[in-house]
Structure to design on (433 residues):
């Protein structure tokens, strides 16, 4: 099977690498010539565990290649995936489908023989139908079908998620396309991964609903954490107790500084917009969005209080900038809101992240960049853990404290045990404990 993957970002690259590992021949196309040049030389432009070895192996055995031009790849493809970005549209919160429709216009002239066009990008309900309409208008002669195939991988464990999915979701109402999608995912179904085939609209809405539900779960435990602090309970204990209930589940019950990342904020906004326009507003999800925005802002006040009421003239070490560990992605990360707020309150911020500095640096002016957690802590009055990278869990807290001028440790991810932090000499604040 020949696959053309349009978009070599977090989703496109991982999907392309995994499909080539399944044995399919994949051409990955991206407009970004620099990215393609790096990939051709075996350099992976993003940080995602295990991706480099997978790409290297499949480059070597000729099952994957990279191009900036899509014509030949689309012409040879049985399946064309759209994995381009769908960022939040300025002004109204909708998903911006500009890149999707641009790619559709570019690929249309090259369709050749029966081809399935599948959207991996997260797109508004009705987009597959609209893609079909546009393709028909440009190429009334072409033999094609449009499917929705939303992606559920998580950055940081993307390869594992792609190859061990809870389910593969296919929105499809054309028998030949369905057969092709089932053949494509055969290596996963042989290992018992369920393929759920539904209508295209259901698939598109299911992706948004899943992300909105997960965002709601995070906001729920964040509010419970605040209540724990007010009434003397421990959110970790509450989460363990409720997570053991199979109806609730123990995932996504970790309190923190509010959800961020390239998906939840924009997908929640887009779903809210879709619902309002359908005159079926989702008041619950609208509240989740409000709670989360307020939470990100509230974190600066939390740090200020821990620092004794003022940050003026103080130095704050920030550990972690990525929106979560094991990725270099900082899109909508809590750190991007937090650091400028600390600076506005008069603090000097010294920051360290194992992989996200390159992406964060152009956005966070005035920050002092450090090469390790200990270097960031040098002379700091307060150290704040913003992203729970494993290397922060393993830090020697006594050494960390020894580098600092002050003794305040604010742990926004509950990485440490309170008694452990106190034994190292810290005045310790965490979430919900
Ligand atoms: P990204 O920004 O990392 O990558 C998108 C890529 O598409 C970029 O490299 C860009 O240059 C390229 N591109 C844009 N227009 C193009 C065109 N016409 N031709 C060729 N290349 C083009 O985005 P991402 O994080 O991979 O997300 C892609 C989609 O997948 C989004 O809709 C997102 O919501 C969805 N998604 C993302 C994740 C995630 O964890 N990142 C998970 C599930 C779903």
């Amino acid at each position: 099977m020949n696959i053309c993957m349009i978009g070599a970002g977090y989703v496109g690259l991982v999907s392309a690498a995994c499909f080539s590992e399944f044995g399919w021949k994949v051409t990955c196309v991206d407009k970004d010539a620099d990215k393609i040049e790096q990939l051709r030389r075996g350099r992976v432009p993003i940080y995602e565990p295990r991706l480099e070895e997978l790409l290297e192996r499949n480059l070597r055995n000729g099952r994957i290649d990279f191009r900036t031009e899509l014509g030949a790849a689309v012409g040879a493809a049985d399946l064309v995936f759209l994995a381009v970005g769908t960022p939040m549209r300025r002004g109204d919160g909708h998903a911006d489908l500009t890149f999707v429709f641009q790619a559709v216009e570019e690929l249309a002239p090259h369709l050749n023989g029966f081809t399935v066009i599948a959207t991996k990008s997260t797109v508004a309900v009705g987009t597959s139908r609209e893609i079909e309409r546009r393709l028909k208008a440009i190429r009334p002669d072409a033999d094609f079908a449009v499917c929705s195939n939303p992606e559920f991988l998580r950055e940081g464990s993307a390869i594992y998620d792609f190859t061990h999915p809870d389910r593969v979701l296919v929105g499809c109402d054309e028998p030949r396309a369905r057969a092709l999608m089932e053949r494509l995912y055969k290596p996963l179904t042989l290992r018992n991964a369920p393929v759920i085939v539904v209508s295209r609209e259901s698939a598109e809405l299911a992706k948004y609903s899943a992300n909105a539900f997960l965002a709601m779960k995070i906001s729920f435990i964040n509010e419970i954490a605040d209540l724990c602090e007010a009434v003397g309970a421990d959110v970790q204990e509450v989460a363990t107790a409720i997570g053991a209930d199979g109806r609730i589940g123990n995932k996504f019950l970790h309190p923190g500084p509010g959800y961020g990342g390239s998906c939840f904020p924009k997908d929640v906004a887009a779903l809210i917009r879709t619902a309002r326009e359908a005159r079926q507003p989702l008041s619950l999800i609208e509240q989740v969005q409000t709670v989360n925005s307020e939470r990100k802002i509230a974190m600066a006040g939390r740090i200020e209080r821990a620092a004794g009421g003022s940050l003026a003239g103080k130095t704050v070490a920030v550990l972690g900038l990525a929106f979560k560990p094991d990725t270099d992605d900082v899109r909508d990360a809590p750190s991007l809101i937090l650091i400028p707020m600390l600076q506005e309150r008069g603090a000097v911020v010294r920051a360290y992240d194992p992989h996200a500095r390159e992406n964060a640096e152009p956005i966070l002016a005035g920050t002092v960049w450090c090469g390790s957690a200990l270097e960031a802590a040098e002379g700091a009055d307060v150290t704040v853990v913003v992203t729970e990278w494993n290397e922060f869990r393993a830090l020697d807290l006594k050494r960390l404290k020894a580098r600092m001028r002050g003794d305040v440790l604010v742990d926004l991810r509950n990485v440490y045990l309170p008694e452990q932090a106190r034994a190292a000499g810290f005045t310790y604040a965490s979430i919900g404990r």
